[in-house]
Amino acid sequence: MSRVTTRGRDEGVSAVPVNADLEIEDKILGPFTARQTAILATTAVIGWLFYAGLHKLVPPVVLLAAALIIGAALVATITTKRDGLPLDRYLLAAIRHQRRGNRYITSDADEPVPAGLGRLEMPVAGLDEAGVLDLGPDGAAVLIECGTVNLALRSGDEVHAALAGFGQALNALGGAFQFVVTAHRIDLTRRAELVESAAAGLSHPALETRARAYAGLLRDLSGERDLIARRVLLVLREPGPAQHAAGGVLHRAAQAAALLTGCGITARILTASEAVAALACATDTARPQPAAAQCPPDRAVAVAEHASPFAAWNAPGPGTDGLSSRPTVPDQEV
Q1: What is the Cα–Cα distance from 62 to 56, expressed in whole angstroms?
Q2: Which end of the chain, N or C, is surrounded by fewer C-beta atoms within 10 Å?
Q3: Rounded distance between C-alpha atoms, residue 162 and residue 169, angstroms
Q4: Nearest C-alpha neighbor of 311 from the set 135, 187, 208, 172
Q5: Distance (Å, rounded) from C-alpha 271 to C-alpha 128?
Q6: pLDDT in tens, 101-127
Q7: Each residue of 23-53: pLDDT tens digit?
Q8: What is the C-alpha to C-alpha distance for residues 190 and 310, in angstroms, rounded to an integer?
């Protein structure tokens, strides 16, 4: 359980318990879900068939002991979780993973895959100029970058108003959507070097002094702390054929951006290049940009060295003196 702290109108701060697992399955028979109940019922029927066929050949005590052992093992398997998955699903995923191999190649569906390799199947089949992701039979999707709101600096009435507006915006979204929050380490050393190199060209000694002090602050931050940049993405998906779903998901994305902006949350639809960078960052957080060239069909996929999508922290911002303190990547927090 998570605890969310809110400020009341007059009663100060109160803690409200919120279930951390919002996708928990419903229990229909004691502590067991529908899937677990079906597994137990199927096993019980199979066990009864074995008993009916073997009770005249095997002592009942032996059959009872075997049934107790199998039942206990089955209950432990379907109730124990590993990394958020029930143990039975986890074992099935591990078996599929071992059978498919750990190295993947890009190839057509009708081409054979060499032994020890697997076919790389990506959900995104294409991308248009507007930033709409073609998901093939699953429809189309659009990525929206969202800002954050600091509720700790607001009064109780303002907090309630902001949460009420956000709730109304969520209710008005409709369709399939998901918020994705990611965090990435950033390094300000390169930005400090650029600021310091540009300080000598400033027109006034006071500006140069301030610039060098700013560069020293950036170095101190990089040396003393692990800096994290957070990013919030809203993913909207529209089912149906991609050519028909693209217009619908773009319309929903524009509405979602307007609704979130009305709540005080900055929101903008990612362009095609920004969407590519976001997808590459999700698959390889250390090197978020995609490789320059597509991997040949007969080789394993490799990602080349490239710049971080948060390179804006390491380069001067806009302006004549190149010393803007705001990075070009919006809504990041340090």
Answers
A1: 12
A2: N
A3: 11
A4: 187
A5: 9
A6: 667 776 666 777 777 677 777 788 888
A7: 677 788 888 888 888 888 999 999 899 888 8
A8: 12
